[in-house]
């Protein structure tokens, strides 16, 4: 069954992929799992490097090419990157995102042998059919990223992982079969399930992937992961074997970010690397059975995980139906434009825990954003939105996420002099979330 016929199937199943998300940890939606960052820093509310602990207890990491892994406790699968100075923060969107590093102009690099693909070949034309290479600009983070996606319809609907486009201010998609490049916009996302749906502009006559409609593969089945390995712009195919069809992995990020548990994942052994995020997991018939999402590091054998295609397509159906219930976001989120320091980060900073005022302390303010226009600066502490007291960055994120771009909110904050300030701001349309 071709993708363009599949995604409207009323029988699309749900429930295979569930997320155990700690209520106050909605910012973990910003984590990065398999993508590819090549530029200034794996930074921001994107938490480009994520740590995944597999059901068997081995270290597993999200595959974001370019994850600079500035913090030592998270392994990197990324290419060398530059432009980040140290320190964790929560990112730019509702004011609080995931984890990352403070943006800066200092160059630096990191790399990992785990991101060097040893056992893969250039994808054949049949393996490349319907697969796209995704490049993003993370404008607020002075970074770039890359990943993979799958064409679902001839007019340009593309499925990928949410973390591939999370934080993007520009998205460019190249059809691997034709070499033609398109600008893409976000139709909708489910950040906790790591699914995103894009629309290519002015696209027509595209060849789609073929989706398997016979359920999950079986243990010992042969599979092939096709992706934009290391963000190199060339599709690579890594052959492997299914080792489990109902695996669970738990993701976590630096310091304070609570983990998410993804269940019902296809576990397989194949040499997947950074940049393979959002790519197709093909069965022996060349049909898509899953979307590659995470993989282990630190051992000779790579254990990888894919979202079953039925689960991903059920979320696509919800997005196309315009149903923004649950964790689905349609289009782009509301955007305030501040980075909020975590409690853990503030405790590590000189002088201890920073401000003694309860609320969400601003680590920095992005230029040209609603927060900047309101006069907020680093060191200020947001204490209320529309009269609701703010006690944490998580709460700030949640309240902003309940709004749409164009909504007006009243902010109350304590400035660095200890003086209470109030202003009404109009939330902007943020980067992809």
TrEMBL record:
Keyword field: Hydrolase, Membrane, Protease, Transmembrane, Transmembrane helix
UniProt keyword Hydrolase, yes or no: yes
Residues spanning the membrane: 33-55
Biased composition, class Gly residues, residue ranges: 84-101
Record's keyword annotation contains Transmembrane: yes
Gene Ontology biological process terms in this record: proteolysis
Positions of the PDZ domain: 331-417
Coiled-coil ranges from the UniProt annotation: none
InterPro entries according to UniProt: Chloro_Bact_Ser_Proteases (IPR051201), PDZ (IPR001478), PDZ_6 (IPR041489), PDZ_sf (IPR036034), Peptidase_S1_PA (IPR009003), Peptidase_S1C (IPR001940), TRYPSIN_SER (IPR033116)
Gene Ontology molecular functions: serine-type endopeptidase activity
UniProt feature, compositional bias: Low complexity: 102-122
Alphabetical list of Pfam families matching this protein: PDZ_6, Trypsin_2
Positions of the UniProt region annotated as Disordered: 59-122
Ranges of compositional bias, category Polar residues: 59-74
PANTHER family listed in its UniProt record: PEPTIDASE S12, PROTEASE DO-LIKE 8, CHLOROPLASTIC
Protein name: Trypsin-like peptidase domain-containing protein
Organism: Demequina capsici
